[in-house]
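User: Can you predict the 3D structure for this chain?
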Amino acid sequence: MRKLPLFILAMAAYGAWDQYHKAQPVAAVAGAHDEVIMYSMTTCGYCKQKKGEMEAAGIAYTEYFIDMDADRRDELNRKLEQSGLPPRGYGVPILDVHGTMLPNNPSLETIRQHLGET
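Assistant: Here is the predicted structure, written as structure tokens:
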């Protein structure tokens, strides 16, 4: 009998985790422009990986380190708010592709879609 409550608790936790990830937005428009901007952190392995992927794909971008530049961190939070996304609730890298905010380390395929490549 003791295993049943643990199983139920584990399933409830999984359901909450699954719902959280399903609820995360994939893209939101902040304002149109011609740039691709990657907001990163100097200690982020995912950021380094995304940088390599984008360079290998030939995607030109500008990278800002939000843990080293408070103005860029504020800029990012402002863009997230303008696009209707809550600020400070996402993992890096966060990309701004021509004004569309792509939080939570978007896939290269998603980035290409917003560049109009697919």
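Strands lie at 28-29, 36-40, 62-65, 94-97, 100-102. The chain has one domain: 26-115.
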